């Protein structure tokens, strides 16, 4: 049931601290300060290359994971939406691990990609939320998310749980490759374990987000900008908004603005900038200022330090708790989801059953 929430989507957004904690429990050994996998004897040390394939929101989780696998494990990562992966001629060499990511475990294109990769001799890992699904059954390494049933058509809690599993997998791969010292492993465990509390901190901004939703609800077009792991979040933010509010939205890598999309900017286009303070902050803020100089209405999502440093000129800010960069994608997913939710409610659309969309896409 929806409990005392007005929509399943809102209930599921609010469940995230609990379900992420639940998911992390099967991947982190808190006492030993170690990361592990549910199938401990699966050998990751021989993996030479990773191919990540998924659709929609699950694809954006995979896009975040690409940054992590490369950064921590130094393993090259290939990333594709399943419907494209199937119809190009991907080169899959020995020692490759295919990772499929799917809430339902039944998405037709992703399942077909899994089967194709298997026929090419790849090992298969599946990050899935439905443990009885086809992908779960056909994988060599089943990596469950413990999000519980997701009813709202727009994916929310499955996404943050996928990120939690993928971060743990990246750490395990790094460890298997001898690229993670004991001290680094301890630190990663500590940061990941902080995610549930940080998600709670992010939820505390719900009312403030609701209060600013009208700025976005009045728009015809909205842009989302991010850099690094915030780039996939920008894409996810735009997807969530268009799915449930039917407002046209696009996500861009912040540095790509000047290569075209900046031509769209005027005072009718809200631009949501996702920029936690950290090594990429300055660069993103300078892209933000380019938008402001052209009259764009910037809504900045950052932490207190970031918002202070960015100065004047935004139409609104959303303050997130200050978190380690590893868990920032999980935490910043919350304001992005809440903004889409409140805009949709303000517009009066059917949040849980958006038009033309199905929860599980089992046809191509
Ligand atoms: C977006 C959304 C879809 C799904 C996509 C993949 O809110 O729900 O984009 O993420 O259809 O579905 P799964 O994860 O079940 O493979």
UniProtKB/TrEMBL annotation:
Protein's name in the database: Glutamine--fructose-6-phosphate aminotransferase [isomerizing]
Coiled coil start-end? none
Cellular location(s) = Cytoplasm
Catalytic activity, as annotated: D-fructose 6-phosphate + L-glutamine = D-glucosamine 6-phosphate + L-glutamate
Q: Which GO terms describe its biological process?
A: amino sugar biosynthetic process; carbohydrate metabolic process; fructose 6-phosphate metabolic process; protein N-linked glycosylation; UDP-N-acetylglucosamine metabolic process
Domain SIS: residue ranges: 39-179, 212-354
Source organism of this protein record: Sphingomonas kyeonggiensis
Q: Which EC number(s) are documented for this chain?
A: 2.6.1.16
Indicate the residues that form the catalytic site. 359
Q: Which domain of life is it from?
A: Bacteria
Q: Which UniProt keywords are listed?
A: Aminotransferase, Cytoplasm, Glutamine amidotransferase, Repeat, Transferase
Quaternary structure, per UniProt, is: Homodimer.
Keyword Nucleotide-binding (UniProt): no
Q: What does this protein do?
A: Catalyzes the first step in hexosamine metabolism, converting fructose-6P into glucosamine-6P using glutamine as a nitrogen source.
GO MF entries = carbohydrate derivative binding; glutamine-fructose-6-phosphate transaminase (isomerizing) activity
Gene Ontology cellular component annotations, sorted alphabetically:
cytosol
């Amino acid at each position: 049931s929806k409990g005392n929430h007005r929509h399943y989507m809102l209930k599921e957004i609010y469940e995230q601290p609990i379900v992420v904690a639940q998911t992390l429990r099967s991947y982190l050994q808190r006492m030993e300060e170690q990361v592990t996998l549910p199938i401990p004897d699966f050998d990751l040390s021989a993996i030479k290359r990773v191919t990540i394939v998924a659709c929609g929101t699950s694809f954006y989780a995979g896009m975040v994971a690409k940054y992590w696998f490369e950064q921590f494990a130094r393993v090259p990562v290939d990333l594709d939406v399943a419907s494209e992966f199937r119809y190009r001629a991907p080169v899959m060499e020995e020692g490759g691990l295919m990772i499929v990511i799917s809430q339902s475990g039944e998405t037709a294109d992703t399942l077909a990609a899994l089967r194709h990769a298997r026929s090419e001799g790849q090992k298969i890992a599946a990050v899935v939320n439905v443990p009885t699904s086809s992908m779960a059954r056909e994988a060599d390494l089943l990596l469950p998310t413990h999000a519980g049933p997701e009813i709202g058509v727009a994916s929310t809690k499955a996404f943050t749980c996928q990120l939690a599993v993928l971060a743990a997998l990246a750490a395990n791969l790094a460890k298997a490759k001898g690229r993670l010292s004991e001290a680094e492993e301890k630190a990663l465990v500590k940061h990941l374990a902080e995610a549930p509390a940080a998600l709670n901190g992010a939820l505390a901004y719900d009312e403030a987000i609701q209060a600013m939703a009208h700025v976005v609800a009045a728009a015809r077009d909205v842009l989302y900008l991010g850099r690094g792991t915030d780039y996939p979040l920008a894409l996810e933010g735009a997807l969530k908004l268009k799915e449930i509010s039917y407002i046209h939205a696009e996500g861009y890598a912040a540095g790509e603005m000047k290569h075209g999309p900046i031509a769209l900017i005027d005072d009718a286009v809200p631009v949501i900038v996702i920029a936690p303070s950290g090594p990429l902050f300055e660069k993103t803020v300078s892209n933000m200022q380019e938008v402001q100089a052209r009259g764009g209405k910037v809504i900045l999502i950052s932490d207190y330090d970031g918002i202070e440093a960015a100065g004047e000129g935004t139409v609104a800010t959303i303050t997130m708790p200050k978190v380690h960069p590893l868990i920032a994608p999980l935490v910043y997913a919350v304001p992005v989801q809440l903004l889409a939710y409140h805009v949709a409610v303000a517009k009066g659309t059917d949040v849980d059953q958006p038009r033309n969309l199905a929860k599980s896409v089992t046809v191509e």
